[in-house]
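Lesson 9: reading folded outputs for more than one chain in a single document. The general rule is that every protein is listed as its sequence immediately followed by its C-alpha cells, and records are never interleaved. Here is the first one.
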Amino acid sequence: MKRTDIEARTEELVMPIIDSGGYELWDVEYVKEGSDYYLRVYADKEGGIAIDDCVTISRALEAKLDEEDFIEEAYILEVSSPGLTRKLKKDRDLERSIGRLVLIKLYKKENEAKEHTGYLDSFDKDSITIKNDNGTVTFMRENISSIRLEFEE
C-alpha cells in the first residue's frame, strides 16, 4: 500500500475519534526514519491539546488500526500536537491561519531571500500572499518549499 493511501485510510479512521472528542485534525503522515516506520497523527483543540488527549486518541485509533490491519510493515504510532510552529500543508490549514505570522521558505531566492516572514493575507490554488514590512508580497505555490506558523512573542 502506498504512503498516501495509508495516510488517507488512517485519516478516515481517526476522524470520528477527532470529531467526537472536539479535537481538530492537523495532519497524518506515514514516514520511514532510519529502519523504523512512523504513523503520526497531529491533533489540536481550542486551548491546546494535552497528553491525556493524545493518549485517548492513540488508544482509540490503535484499536481501529488493529482491526483493519492494512499496514504491512511494523510501525510506531505517535499522536501529538502539531506544535506552535506547525507546517501549513493543506488549504484548510491556510484558511484557519489567515492573519497569523508565517514563515515561507522558497526553493530559490525571490526579493533577495529564500525565506520570507509575514502575516498570511490570502491564498488561492496558485499563490499565497503575505503582508510584511515590504507591503503585500505574493508567492507562486510552485516556488514554495514549505510554510509554517511562526512563534509570536
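And here is the second record, again sequence then C-alpha cells.
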Amino acid sequence: MLSQSLDSAKSKMEQTITFVSSELTKIRTGRANPEMFNKILVKYYDNDTPLNQIANISTMDAITISIQPFDKTSIDDIEKAILESDLGFNPSNNGNSIMITFPPLSVERRQELVKVASKIIEDGRISVRNIRREMIQSAKRVEEEQKIPEDDMKKFMDDIQEVTDSFVKRLNLIQQEKEVEILDK
C-alpha cells in the first residue's frame, strides 16, 4: 500500500515538472521559439483553433519565426490573433506567410521575465510539497485503519521526503537553466 502511494506521488510530481516546463517555454527569452505560439487561438470558421493546427510554425534564424497557414484565407485571422495575444509581437504579413522578428530584450524586461519564471517554479515547488503532504495524510489514515508497523511508516516518511527533495532539486536546476537562458544576451 505504501509503495503504491510512493509511486503515485512520483507520478504526480512528474506531471508537475512537465507542466512547469511547458509553462516556462512560453516565456520569451530573446530567441525565436515556435512553442510560444501554441497557446494562441485563431478564429477559424467560427471556432477557436490553436494556431499550430492551422499553420506551420518554424524558426528561420535565432530571431525570426515564420508562420505559413495551410489555408491562405486564414492569414488575416492568424495575424489578428497574434496581435491580440499577450506576446506583444508585431507580425509582418506578406500575403503567403507571416514573419515575426523578436526584438532584443531590455535589461529591465529580462529581470521581469526572471521574476515570472521564478513564480512559475515556486508554484511547482508548492505543488510538489502539497503532493507530499497529501500522501503523508493518506498514509496516516491507512496506518490507523490497518495498523501498519511503525518501522514501515518511518521508512515511507523518509522515502517520500527523499522523493520530494529530488523533485525540488530538479525544479531548482530548471530555474537556474531558465534564468541563464533569459539573462544570456
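What the second record shows: The chain is about 60% helix and 15% strand.
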